[in-house]
Design a protein that fits this description.
homodimer, Isopropylmalate Dehydrogenase, two-stranded antiparallel sheet, 14 strands, globular, binds 3-isopropylmalic acid, oxidoreductase (chains A, B), branched-chain amino acid biosynthesis (chains A, B), leucine biosynthesis (chains A, B), manganese (chains A, B), IsoCit/isopropylmalate_DH_CS (chains A, B)
């Protein structure tokens, strides 16, 4: 097969980890006889510096013409003082919106080889296998107004949590579809005892649930979910929630595996292209130090092979290689532990390639 | 001293745990020569059933005339289908608003005797001593509009995250005052890379920080905070955040001690009365089973003695008694562990009283 992949390294360690994904994809292409064409675009702070905007039109065009998008990370202290519309993060939010990436899928799995790097007890996390489905193009992230205002002559500010019912419908339905192929359970997270939007969310979930008699639906309040995620993570199969709750809970879930540096994500739309990015950020503190963990990005590339190109065997080859490298004791700094071999970003990439 | 205390047991296990606090306060009163007058009011589902509203006027009057308010818990499946304004939770939100309880203080401390009930490794939680300061009368909880609406003829819904700058100011300032009496560090949690309200929040925190050269201010994004809370909880001293983020993070923090059933809270205003409640809910599943943990409520009463009545020694007497009872191995079901003596709610109350 021939596939065109838009590559947006972004800022900070984005460039370093993206390099890993590309090298691994090259190796997979050679082994399985595929041709991957990579074309590079700018996003985030790098784009602000070069073109004065966090998401130049050329980048958008590149993405729309490609079969899939790989994204590193955006952001950094250099741009923190900019107004919101000129921040690197705005580039990420805009690309999500323009490509209509309504659902972000974040799998969290237990790695027995990493059980010693998690702050949780082994018996709590052993066997965890959870898929977070986060709504990605609505809610507080995009609602208007989002601005400074006045109330009785006093300074005030407003952000808006807005959803169309249909936006809830498509992401919750997707969660049910995914649950069907897994263990058949959906936990829908909301704050229905306070928010009107959550009450609508719950109604939509109930409606959809009627069409999936084979899937169990459970509702959970977001505060309780934040607790249950740590107390008893094995209870979760597919978790579906709105944008901001999903942002918080999926980062929280990352502690289960021990490091953000391990976690890939896929953002999907109705008609493609999909976008793949690690859930970690640009980590400016370790930028250029060859210390970042490339695994989240490499596993994001594996998700791309599976979900965008239907290359199941190829995806598994990458996932197996990662597992073997971990089993062999190779560790980047974030997952280092006593008695293991600590390696740099580029050494980790080499190990994965060699194992392929 | 003579003190008038409004007691609002509410729903579910609220009644059972409130009983414990009252008995313990009686015992303290006798020992230290104080007179506590308890007067009872209805709130939540119990009030809906009796008076058709989750917060009757009599209850509000009772609270306003009292020196402090003790609240059990509200809510239950019986009232889940009610519209939002007729739900038990609305009584809680309304009392917070009417008494102007702008800050909710939730201390989380490590109990060495309970280290085996936490899902976290002992070395992660050993020595944790954190105070969460949650804004309690603003944000998404109270912003208008909060309603169903239409967009281009499609069903939609909106909630509003609204803050006056002054509302941010008073709660962040309080966090700095509290940090000064502790380890001198404030972590301000926001989502300043996305929300305009968070950008204002950050500015206000910076402003206040200038007046507290002896306190270190650190900003943390809410997704990162949800992760750090578990990964490295010892880094936190005082954490201050807006209402919804605080709701999520403080329940999450409860896993550090092993059980929600251990955690008290105080909600304070500018001119009193303050309100004290456990952070757990009404737990309808164990209602009437004499299985609830009364310690969170008892420790809330201790916070009342300290913060509302200036009775430091009396508060410590309660806290010491609780510690001794735990050290002696008594455990309610939620904190039960192998080799310890499992007791009922009333037995736990008796043990604490006897130890006083
Ligand atoms: C960088 C930021 C805008 C983004 C978000 O909040 O969605 C990030 O935290 C994520 O989860 O992808
Ligand atoms: C019962 C509910 C409305 C309440 C809240 O969300 O504030 C509770 O979760 C709490 O934290 O006190």
């Amino acid at each position: 097969m021939k596939k065109r992949i838009a590559v947006l390294p972004g800022d900070g360690i984005g460039k370093e980890v993206v390099k890993g994904a590309i090298e691994v994809l090259q190796a997979v292409g050679e082994r399985f006889g595929h041709q991957f064409y990579f074309s590079y675009g700018k996003i985030g702070g790098t784009a602000i510096d070069a073109a004065g905007t966090p998401l130049p039109d050329e980048t958008m065009e590149l993405c729309k013409e490609s079969d899939a998008v790989l994204l590193g990370a955006v952001g950094g202290p250099k741009w923190d003082q900019q107004p919101l519309h000129l921040r690197p993060e705005r580039g990420l939010l805009k690309i999500r919106k323009e490509l209509n990436l309504y659902a972000n899928l974040r799998p969290t799995q237990y790695y027995s080889s990493l059980s010693d790097t998690s702050p949780l007890r082994k018996e709590v996390i052993e066997g965890v296998d959870m898929l977070m489905v986060r709504e990605l193009t609505g809610g507080l992230y995009f609602g208007k107004p989002s601005e400074r205002t006045q109330q009785n002559g006093e300074d005030a500010v407003v952000d808006t949590l807005f959803y169309q019912k249909e936006e809830m419908h498509r992401v919750i339905k997707l969660a049910f579809e995914l649950a069907r192929k897994r263990r058949g359970k959906v936990t829908s997270v909301d704050k229905a005892n306070v928010l009107e939007s959550s009450r609508m969310w719950r109604e939509v979930a109930e409606d959809i649930s009627n069409q999936y008699p084979d899937v169990v639906l459970e509702h959970m309040l977001v505060d309780n979910a934040a607790m249950q995620m740590i107390k008893n993570p094995k209870q979760f199969d597919v978790v579906v929630t709105e944008n901001m709750f999903g942002d918080i809970l999926s980062d929280e879930a990352s502690v289960l595996t021990g490091s953000l540096g391990m976690l890939p994500s896929a953002s999907i739309s109705e008609n493609g292209p999909y976008l793949y990015e690690p859930i970690h950020g640009s980590a400016p503190d370790i930028e250029g130090k060859n210390a970042a963990n490339p695994i989240a990005m490499i596993l994001s590339a594996a998700m791309m092979l599976r979900l965008s190109f239907g290359m199941e065997e190829e995806a598994e080859a990458i996932e197996n290689a990662v597992n073997q490298v971990l089993d062999a004791g190779y560790r980047t700094r974030d997952i280092a532990s006593f008695g293991k071999k600590q390696v740099s970003t580029s050494e980790m990439i080499e190990e994965v390639k060699a194992t392929l």
